[in-house]
């Protein structure tokens, strides 16, 4: 999600108009409109301040994406399976002798 979408969503969810948010954030409504339209990019500090004026906190999270994520997940699953297999006894039992009844 980019800055314009984050700001638009925060303002929409807060129920504020452009002018109301501008007053709260001490900036102009045209600046906020430019941020929301994507014609201007706010700094991270400005975006945090504007989202805060809407009554929200901005959080960021780093996570792997694409094929790398899939390989990591499969690797973790393989390790779990191998750990589970180590918990089973490894000695082989003698084969069971079965005799057919005499006729």
* Number of beta-strand segments: 0
Subunit organisation of the chains: single chain
Overall radius of gyration: 30 Å
* Residue-averaged pLDDT: 87
Indicate the proportion of strand residues. Answer: under 5%
Reading the helices and strands in chain order gives HHHHH
Q: Number of helical segments?
A: 5
**Given the C-alpha coordinates, what overall shape results?**
rod-shaped
Helix content: 55-70%
Helix/sheet category: mainly alpha
Low-pLDDT residue intervals, each spanning 5 or more residues: none
Give the biggest sheet: none
From the N-terminal CA to the C-terminal CA, the straight-line distance is 80 Å
Protein architecture, described:
The protein has 103 residues and is mainly alpha-helical. 57% of the residues lie in helices and 0% in strands. It has five helices and no strands. Helix 2 packs across helix 3. The radius of gyration is 30 Å and the shape is rod-shaped. The N and C termini lie far apart (80 Å). The mean pLDDT is 87.
Topology readout:
Blueprint (H helix, E strand, L loop, with lengths): L2 H12 L3 H8 L3 H9 L6 H10 L13 H20 L17
């Amino acid at each position: 999600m980019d800055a314009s979408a984050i700001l638009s969503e925060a303002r929409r969810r807060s129920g504020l108009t452009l002018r109301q948010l501008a007053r709260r954030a001490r900036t102009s409504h045209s600046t906020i409109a430019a941020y929301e339209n994507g014609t201007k990019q706010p700094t991270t500090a400005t975006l945090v301040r504007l989202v805060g004026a809407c009554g929200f906190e901005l959080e960021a999270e780093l996570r792997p994406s694409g094929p790398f994520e899939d390989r990591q997940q499969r690797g973790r699953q393989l390790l779990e399976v191998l750990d589970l297999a180590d918990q089973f006894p490894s000695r082989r039992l003698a084969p069971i002798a079965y005799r057919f009844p005499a006729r």
